[in-house]
Amino acid sequence: MRPLVCEIRLNYLRENYLYLKKVHGNKLLAVVKANAYGHGAVQCAQALHDIADGFAVAFVQEAIELRENGITKPIVLLEGALETTEYAEIDKYDLWTVVHNQTQLENLLAYNWQKPATVWLKMDSGMHRVGFFPHNFAAAYTALSQSNKVANIVKMTHFACADEDETGMTEMQIEAFDLACEGLDGEESIANSAAMLRFPETHRDWGRAGLALYGIDPMSKFETEYAIKPVMRLSSKIFSERVLQPHEPIGYGASFYTKRSTRVGVVACGYADGYPRCTPSDTPVAINGARSRVIGRVSMDMMTVDLHDNHFKIGDEVELFGDVVNINELASAAGTITYEILCNMKRAKRIYVK
Ligand SMILES: *Cc1c(COP(=O)(O)O)cnc(C)c1O
User: Fold this and answer.
1) From ligand 1's centre to the CA of 32, what distance in Å?
2) Which DSSP letter does residue 327 get?
3) In the predicted model, is pLDDT for residue 310 greater than 80?
4) pLDDT range class, residue 166, cuts 50, 70, 90
5) Quick one: pLDDT at residue 198?
6) Atom 1 in ligand 1: which residue has the minimum CA distance?
7) Are 238 and 313 in contact (CB under 8 A)?
8) In ligand 1, which atom is closest to the CA atom of 209?
9) 14: Cβ below 6 Å to ligand 1?
10) What is 232-352's CATH number, 3.30.420.270, 2.40.37.10, 3.60.20.10, 3.40.50.880?
11) pLDDT at position 167, please?
12) pLDDT over threshold 90, residue 276
């Protein structure tokens, strides 16, 4: 069997949830959209079910998959209904839907609900992707609250820069949100992972934890200051090796030349497994727990690493990311973000650790 293994430590997931819930103080949604950021939505939701206040997914099919696998807690659809036909499913499966524009609002009110809906009404407080502008928010709120089709409205917004240093943008968004919500009662939800960790004033009725729930520092730190542990660990093995003389090329494009006599190990993992192809030479890996590095270009199914220490041999374990190599380190070397790498973990064999 190919030795590439994607371990999902569900025990860490639970610990991370409980920690973030303590930080946030109030209720906390576990964001499990995009197959729980590549970790497996059903497995993660089931592992959290007894402790989670609710879950969030992007769209209705993701929510139905959870309902069909025994998830009975609240589920929020972060993108809301994408087609009018989805209101019947939202109604049937008892889902909470975001309403972020006038079309969604009108379609929701036009639908003949069996039971009154719970709506998360989204404000665009500055990210300018979706949501009602602050000056239109009260009107949208009133239209929903005056309808007998709506039981409950949660006011929400989303931050553009909560994971960035000193932009002032988050403070500005909080102020815009609070100002536009004046006089509108009901629950509020504004914090994503970065905001709940860094801005206590974002702790409202519901937090929405994604990245930090999976144990990744949203500030892209290689060593986090928060009590979260990486849930996913990707490891494989060396399945071939050779010694190259100085000034010899390795791999596609001959992008790397040895400087000295070099033992090269070939690892069963490539970009088809979601390991970024643009990862440059010198990016860290850990062989039997000791840090080494990628050399040469990442291929589809394999990659080459420096075995400079003679103790490494065929069959030795290589951690691509997880405990020794933080995934933020890999993402930074590859010029991407951890979210993207996690979501691309679709091929490696899964092992769920309870
Ligand atoms: C994905 C998402 C989140 C979670 O964000 P993280 O940065 O992963 O914590 C929260 N809110 C909304 C609206 C989202 O789409």
Assistant:
1) 9
2) H
3) no
4) confident
5) 97
6) 210
7) yes
8) 9
9) no
10) 2.40.37.10
11) 86
12) yes
